[in-house]
Amino acid sequence: MDKRIILAKAGSGKTYYICNNLNPINKNLIIAYTNQNISNIVNEVSKAHDGIPNHTEIITFHSFIYRNFIRPYELLFSEKYNCPVFRSKGVSFVVPEPAMIKGKFNSKYHKNNTIKHYYTYNCEQVFLSRMSDLVVKNKEIFLHGISYMKKFFDYFYIDEVQDFRESDWKLLEMIIQELDNVVLVGDFYQHSVSGDNNSGIPFRVNNTLKKYKEYLTKLGLTVDELTLSKSRRCTKKVCEFVSIKTKINIEPFNMSSTSEVREISDREELINLLKDDLVMKLLLRNSHKQYFKAINWGNSKGDTYDAILVVLPSTHKKIFDEDFEISSEISRNKLYVTLTRTRGDLLIVQDEIFKEFNEKIL
Q1: Does position 102 have pLDDT exceeding 70, yes or no?
Q2: SS3 content of the chain, % helix, strand, coil (to 5)
Q3: pLDDT surpasses 90 at 36
Q4: Which residues does residue 91 pair with via DSSP β-bridges, in sequence order?
Q5: Does residue 126 sit in helix, strand or coil?
Q6: Which of 47, 213, 253, 351 has the CB geometry, 3.0–4.6 Å to 232, for a possible disulfide?
Q7: 78 and 84 in contact (C-beta within 8 Å)?
């Protein structure tokens, strides 16, 4: 049996590790949450093995759930929910009707003991947001899907496991407990950077690294904190700065790597940086409204840039002071992810200065 989770640090090579350490002879299933992650995995596996090995499948989590736990068993769902036999045509990204609207019951809402709770009109498509919940609530169908997995796959890999929440995580937890060979890779401190769903299961209760590790151990997973403990992306100076300011210990893989970490306050230098496409600008929000190349903090997770200019909100204006502290866990995690996007220089400008000079340029 090989059941373990590798707790990684930013830029330590999570995807690289999975792709370069899988055995191409085995029947491997690699799962990730987003299409961008899947694209990265496909590229990395192809480089490592001169193409995708014959017995390796790489697929998004929701595509995997639909193909493995839902589509093959819709006849059983028809019987379970006492509805006409149907065959769906894929997944719907539409947000289903909520139970309440402005404190009043929504007449268009269907309870979770009916098939209409999980499927669009006429059962044409299954709601993406309720797929996992449908499987979790139907244990006998889940066991059918697990039986299939055991027959066709030797190893189950999950990349960026911190992205899984609520019913998606509950289903993943059920899968982990049923399989013998499972390898999960993720960064605990990147679990709350998307701007929503920041404290759902499993992080609502396991909101510290200590609690999270204890929880994973109870699931039967070996917790590995050493394999991907050092960042291959960030320089020594950036790692030191991030460790001090966020209280998240991160070390560089290459101790001799050099870069700058400094605050930008000079008008001419800021104007030149805003015009420089080689320096990615990271804003807390509204990056799409800028005339220069920029990205929001929450959307930068997983990205790597040669150099970054981070625009800090007023809440972080004292970041260069020795007594700087962040009280919010979510704010800390977002700052950690943002500051670790660079393989080179980390440049910082205060929001009030940025707005002043940016308005003059416009």
Answers
A1: yes
A2: 40, 20, 40
A3: no
A4: 126
A5: strand
A6: 253
A7: yes
